[in-house]
Fold these 3 entries.
Entry 1:
Amino acid sequence: MVVTRKIALNSKGHCDLIDITRQVKEEVSASGIDSGTVTLFLAGSTAAISTIEFEPGLLSDFQAMWERNVPRNIPYQHDRAWGEGNGYSHVRSSLLGPSLVVPFTNKTLALGTWQQIVLVDFDNRPRSREIVLQIMGE
Amino acid sequence: MVVTRKIALNSKGHCDLIDITRQVKEEVSASGIDSGTVTLFLAGSTAAISTIEFEPGLLSDFQAMWERNVPRNIPYQHDRAWGEGNGYSHVRSSLLGPSLVVPFTNKTLALGTWQQIVLVDFDNRPRSREIVLQIMGE
Amino acid sequence: MVVTRKIALNSKGHCDLIDITRQVKEEVSASGIDSGTVTLFLAGSTAAISTIEFEPGLLSDFQAMWERNVPRNIPYQHDRAWGEGNGYSHVRSSLLGPSLVVPFTNKTLALGTWQQIVLVDFDNRPRSREIVLQIMGE
């Protein structure tokens, strides 16, 4: 069985982290599928999906890591060509990745107690985003 | 068809890498499913799953990369708030990711000859870990 | 339903990025499966799979990020033992990951307009590569 659902949301950009765990749980629970996997996919090249313990200190630590390793304020060839100033957003997104697969059993996701699913929006402006959920199983 | 299995193990923490390829192969082989995918998922926010050629030099190189890019000995906001000293473990885990999907055909995983599946435990102490295997296919 | 397909290609190595979106679309379209997921998997430990907006500036930016964060010209233990000089290729590959899962509905992949699927070959020489596509759904 395959059930396709979408989560739409608005981000602030600038490495905004948005906890989508509740919505994913609700969609899996309502899907009619008991056991399987939910594949989350972000259509776009300046945002990504991961998991994190969603507490303010860590969100700040995660953002600081991106500033150190893929800094905003160095030259990017993409920005020379396209002038949108978000070359760093693309590079971060390719490194973190647009896809996450989470198993579930008895309609319950295999997440840890302090592990939340997040959209990470690396773009340099507010964005409307849509995450596809492909729920598969039996 | 969906078969759920679990692999339990003990890690030393501190970027311990544990080769779980044999256990994954055994579970896939015993699942009764011929072709499909196995989704590995680590419940927790201070460890992750990836693949590597499992030889001592590379394990050391991989650990050194983490020290350079997400160092242990810089201030983390998470540690101020929670005092467990493992802020770096969380950030590394979010970057590497808790999930890996490996296809198999005729009960054989699509791994390269020198490609092993590993748990990477970034926490700063020994931990008991459980990895969920969702085996799906026909 | 499960359909297994393979994409064979030749890379130049040295962080060569190859756009495989067209081939993946064709295989999904020809699979006879309407909705589900395609799991891409790279058998090997010196290459990886991700998505990127495939334009020359960004390819160069992505390659520059790897040179900064996992440099070629620092000592690797792997190279001492094996002498192939590609220790950095292995470390990059483990960080980016060998696997990508993309949902599709009505035979259409859930990609963004400027989001392409790429093989990233980190090895230090030209390579023949094979990517497994596990197409699952109904």
Note: Residues 8 and 44 of chain C are 13 Å apart (CA to CA).
Entry 2:
Amino acid sequence: MNGFTKRGSSKPEIKRLLSRRGRNLEHGKIGAMPLDQEVSQRLKRNEAGLVCAVVQEASTGRVLMVAWMSDDALAETLETGRGVYWSRSRNEMWRKGDTSGHVQHVVSAEIDCDGDAILLQVEQSGAACHTGKNSCFDEGGPLPVAVGGLS
Amino acid sequence: MNGFTKRGSSKPEIKRLLSRRGRNLEHGKIGAMPLDQEVSQRLKRNEAGLVCAVVQEASTGRVLMVAWMSDDALAETLETGRGVYWSRSRNEMWRKGDTSGHVQHVVSAEIDCDGDAILLQVEQSGAACHTGKNSCFDEGGPLPVAVGGLS
């Protein structure tokens, strides 16, 4: 039994990924994956040690949600290919889909020019928003804007 | 002379938009535009009073940048149809394109489910990134990710 197995994923791929990092799955608890040092040096974290993550659906280009990542969340995302965030409300790691089943499979990850934002392209299983909407911006909806006012 | 004229925009459209809000352009300084109360009530601001803004190119779906908005920046964006942000580094309003000419014309604005993020669809004049790249994520570039690791 390990952290991933408890959450319902016991694919051999995980073992392969973790063993690449010299981790021993027999020890019960995986613990935090260290973030690649080169990536870590590029991050510009906020006061809470987090960077912003924009999550975009690869197949449609729709922006699904904005979330936050700790170093550990980013490391786990990059290592496992699954969208993992830091829940500011629960103050804990948030492996998206553990409760809802609405897992995000990461297609690509990019960092911005000043290192304080990450852009993920994902394949989204089910709805991205906790309300059941495809995108969190579908739930919030449009704001009135003077379109092209200065064009 | 008014705030907009000093920054190089003196389009009649601005006068029209502002006069809709009962502002007198003859008074020299425009001052902050108040945010619509209904929109204001939906915002969940961070400790600095800001919300996150994700800016997406309407024609391509490419995410161009992540920026921050004060109430005033959001109000001006919605009122003028131009991308306006709060510069955290300069601690002042940032009317994107005033210096570079790389103005963003807003096509649509949406708010997310919990009110702490705004998604803008824009037509971008020139490059969005200060480095000259189309997107800030082109400048930062890809991070290594175990694609589909858990699929």
Note: DSSP finds five helices and seven strands in chain B.
Entry 3:
Amino acid sequence: MNILISNGIILPMDVSLGNELYFKGYVGIEGERIAFVSKDRAVAEDFYARHTPDCMLIDASDNVVMPGLINTHTHVAMALLRGISDDVPLMEWLEQHIWPIEARMGYQEVFDGARLGILEMLMGGTTTFVDMYPYEEAVAQAAESAGIRALVTPCPMDFRMEHFENDWRQVQKRFSDSRLVTMWMGPHAIYTLSEKNLQRSISLSRELGTGSHVHLAETQSEQDNCMAQHGMSPTEYLEKQGLFSTKTLAAHCVVMSDHDIEILARNGVSVAHNPQSNMKLASGIAPVRKMLDAGVNVSIGTDGASSNNDLDMWEEMRTASLLQKVSTMDPCATPAYTALQMATVNGAKAIGREGELGVLQAGAFADILLVDIEKPHLYPHTNLISELVYSTHASDVDTVIVNGKIVVENRRCLTMNAQEVCQTAQKHIDALLSK
Amino acid sequence: MNILISNGIILPMDVSLGNELYFKGYVGIEGERIAFVSKDRAVAEDFYARHTPDCMLIDASDNVVMPGLINTHTHVAMALLRGISDDVPLMEWLEQHIWPIEARMGYQEVFDGARLGILEMLMGGTTTFVDMYPYEEAVAQAAESAGIRALVTPCPMDFRMEHFENDWRQVQKRFSDSRLVTMWMGPHAIYTLSEKNLQRSISLSRELGTGSHVHLAETQSEQDNCMAQHGMSPTEYLEKQGLFSTKTLAAHCVVMSDHDIEILARNGVSVAHNPQSNMKLASGIAPVRKMLDAGVNVSIGTDGASSNNDLDMWEEMRTASLLQKVSTMDPCATPAYTALQMATVNGAKAIGREGELGVLQAGAFADILLVDIEKPHLYPHTNLISELVYSTHASDVDTVIVNGKIVVENRRCLTMNAQEVCQTAQKHIDALLSK
């Protein structure tokens, strides 16, 4: 299947194009990949002629055409737990509400919870997400069937290491040919894994050549406990353990010294910044500006829907920008285009897919959004970048293409029955809460 | 005209009902006001029978029925300036971008800018706004013709005091019979008004029996300059000047000592908290939790769209809650219901309309929203209050009633032609920027 997107405002997020951030133009898709991005009508007409009759035409007038958003940290199945516990202290939240329910969740709950979260993400323009959760096969299955790209990681913790290695090897193998799903290792955090189990996770990553997705330095108590136990910060501890010898994506990185930041930069560790979750759980404010200045690749995640409470990357971009401004008392900190980079190209880099995802250029995978900017809250049009970061809503996303396939059209998801997905999730949570 | 809203989930924001925050039920509207709010089907049937055939029926199944949101601080016409300058230091923003363009705006630009902002607000469920801007008559006119409720204040500053008093008296008189528009005085700020002109504003408020809407303690430099000039804080200075002898709504209140907070509480001064604008301009974080604890009535405003960049009260509620949590490092600070109160009942109290607005109860004005909660990002339904504050978008608002009249239906504004409003705004800004 080939697609020609015409007459849109193209926002390629392509640094090689220099200062011309957007322009009127055309995008051609051949199969899974972008064939060309061009201002030139003749190029588009030639592409269309060559592929007729097997070329779909999308009129993108009044739409911004941009790379799909990359959510680099979530627990997508936790969409099922949205709203079950809010406005309570972190440990009460985890121990009295989240963990007891999670303990009752099985494959089916994770699968259907993931479908709900994926539906929300696709409709809001997220085309790739990075997950960490038990029953990782259910998450992978849900992603593949819904047509969203995913980097799925399991969630080893000390209390569920049994059978873990063999199971995960099998799952990893099962998805090795997937066009959409990649598997990494997901050592949960330093406070849930003994040194021995952390080492098992690192060995497994090395053996299978995968990266690692880890929670890091989310709270002051994680920092304090690590100092008391190991005499060093969580970042120093993970470096010493050798985790960063695998390609690492570290979520949160809220409590960070300059030395910690220097370690991330030196090891090429990417960060998934989760501003709304960090605010809601009162974890703190990650030093994003400092990390970017130090050369750390910072991307954006929503975290799970039960600590956010949505999977909306537009809000997350906006909050990332606004929160840095106020926390550094510098209105120039993390300007709008930087926020867009964090949600696209930086996300791609974080998962080792630079040049393949998060960008519109020939050869990249066709993960593309059409954003309808004919809305009162986006008028007047004077600065597209500002519009997208400071005013655009998930509901302004009109069309979503993943891997060359249209998955959302005219604000309707083509790969899932929204009503059925919602009702199924409702049944699960009603049953879980009544147990 | 009478309306019966049936089968909705009613969220009355009515403290007299105690802990039952919401319930399935009915709302009857007679003319401008709410006739009843009830769980009882028989009450609804009787109402309908008494008013047939002159009773419209709205089926609110799958919808939350709640009071319209009250935006207590904006400069609505600045919707015209959305995006013209972002990510720059505050003084550069004002002096090089905003003020030069504002100097070229006249009645028509303010009127059409206000229409754009009002369109966005109505479609997102804001039914009352508090404004401060020159050409206040244009704002009032725009509000009345669009069918939104407004408290409009002019914006006296030293450099445009000429003719001010006479002009404003006339405007105030002209709208004295309006069903939707109320006029207050709007002394801009201590740093734009001499003592003499501030006194003229206070005298005028006293003479005409209006309240005052003022910018207060927005930045550290305002605080520092006031200390240097008057040897006291802006709040202390305004108390000494006698402003608080008029009913006062103070916007921002970011840089506040405990003594300042005590002054607001003692004088019954209400606060309009503008979290996104304060973040974007790097002004700081208002001590909302402290002010609420001290008994200060804190409401929510969006500020103008050029420092936000939208007029979305849902985001503003969410940000208000999340920002207090992270700034106090307390996940229990400003819980969801408190944020809802700030955007409804507290807003009504801030403008002296307690019991009349921001609440669904018999006798109150019929300013009512239907929010469609059949959306993936709002599923599953476990906690309606969390859903509304942490996950609901402006685009989930389906129907909006102001003063008993339906102004938005099925996400379409009935009182304005959206396309025409947007295009007119575009023409104005294009002309202003090309001058």
Note: The domain at 69-350 of chain B is CATH 3.20.20.140 (TIM Barrel).
